[in-house]
Amino acid sequence: MAFTMHSHSGQFCPGHAKDQLEDVVKHAISIGYKTMGLTEHMPRTELEDLYPDELDTDPHASLASLIPRHEAYLLEAQRLQTKYASQINILIGFEGEWIRPECGPLIKTLSAPTCVDYFLGSIHHTGGIGIDFDREMYERAKAAAGGSEELLFQRYYDEQFDMLVALKPRVVGHFDLIRLLSEDPARDLRGWKEGKVWEKVVRNLEFVAKYGGWLECNTSALRKGLKEPYPARPVAEEWLSLGGKFTFSDDSHGVAQVATNYARGLDYLQSLGVTELWTFERATPHPGTPVDGKKATLIEKSVSIDEFRKDLKLE
What we know:
The chain is of the alpha/beta class. It has helices at residues 21-30, 59-83, 103-110, 135-145, 149-167, 196-211, 220-223, 233-241, 262-271, 305-311, and strands at 2-4, 7-8, 33-41, 89-95, 118-121, 125-126, 129-130, 171-172, 214-218, 245-249, 252-253, 276-282, 298-304.
């Protein structure tokens, strides 16, 4: 049973992704997905949090459009969930944007509607500065953290820990995204002289394992030129030693990226000794929510990697 727990569309992430959401869903069905988590980026609420492409025209208009766009996304997601219910189990979620602690209450509010099944706990910023958008912003974040990558990584994992404690997300997105634009994305974090970065990594993993969250194995790192998915092998090995469970994501930003590098990602997991992946099944009922206005029940579902490969139709 092939699936993704992390996806985007150009319809609701204009400038950041491509294609209509329905076209992304239809393509996912055509290549064998049986479950698809829709996780458009949550709206931001401060002008300072807009990305450069959102500042090119009218920043205030860009900011004002984000919440209505999110509301439109939830309506479209529910329509697609119903329309394609006989072909695919659509989960409705969003990607959390923990930029500062004040984002916590907003994420909780956005996760409250009965149609929302889950959210990804993600970090794309440190000190309020984006760390995966481009080199210029990454260097600004590094300077703000004290001028070294070691200090930047420490800040990243401290802010990630704040997010984890405040929200306890069921799925933690791209755990080590901070390595994407770093000087050495393949660096073994256990090798830094002071050892503080690795201590923070282990602390965060232990916390997620304790409350029962999942890490995603996210193959977008491969299409961005990294040699391993998120998380890298040392982190993945530590996670597995804690009894941690993996889900699987393409983090697609349009039709062309659905299931990109999935074969390599599955090979990577099997090289770690992983034999099963985890997803949710929306059970009460699918589609739609119970008539009493409560959220649908999510059942944790194990999928063997062999079964995942068998269902996936890759060229």
